[in-house]
Design brief:
single chain; mainly alpha; 8 helices; 71% helix; sigma factor activity; sigma factor
């Protein structure tokens, strides 16, 4: 079940302000959010079972509880929670490897990121990029999101490669200013 980012962020901010009901709802929402994610990661690694997945979900909830003060409201809650879950799965798989249950360490690479998670991340990034003017957004998106080469993106945009690189750099600098300011306003 997908939980809207706006709902997660609202619950996170209210829970950080001391709203206990919001905090309970946040933990319920995160458990639902990460349960399927963890199951898919374990399945892809051909490791773990339902009990392992539930243990990892509990580890994620504990991590959220103990580290929520580090959450930066300028960033999506879902991405933060998915990153925690991914690290908890990797920790779980490493622990299994240490105890003799073999898992090639190279298989851990397969956990980063799942195609649907990548799509979610791209969607989040696309929302962030909407804050850039089109002249900076298009080159950045072509190279950084779509994976085009500088030469290909420059050719498509009718720009020189140097001009495209400058536009990407300026876009990154603008995003850094936007999110570095702490208020999300350029």
């Amino acid at each position: 079940m997908s939980i809207p980012e706006s709902q997660l962020k609202d619950l996170m901010l209210r829970s950080m302000a001391g709203d206990e009901a919001a905090y309970r709802s946040l933990l319920d929402a995160i458990a639902r959010l990460v349960r399927g994610h963890v199951g898919r990661l374990l399945s892809r690694a051909r490791a773990g079972n339902t009990a392992d997945a539930e243990d990892i979900v509990q580890d994620v909830l504990i991590a959220v509880h103990t580290r929520r003060h580090t959450y930066d409201a300028a960033y999506p809650v879902g991405a933060w929670v998915h990153a925690i879950a991914r690290h908890k799965v990797i920790d779980h798989l490493r622990a299994r490897a240490r105890t003799g249950s073999s898992l090639p360490i190279d298989d851990l690479e397969d956990l980063l990121p799942a195609p649907e998670e990548a799509a979610d991340a791209v969607w989040d990034v696309a929302r962030v990029l909407d804050r850039l003017p089109p002249a900076l957004r298009s080159p950045f998106a072509a190279v950084k999101l779509e994976g085009r080469s500088i030469a290909e993106a420059a050719r498509t945009a009718g720009m020189s490669e140097t001009a495209l690189k400058v536009a990407i750099h300026r876009g990154m600098k603008r995003l850094s200013r936007i999110f570095g300011s702490g208020n999300g306003v350029a």
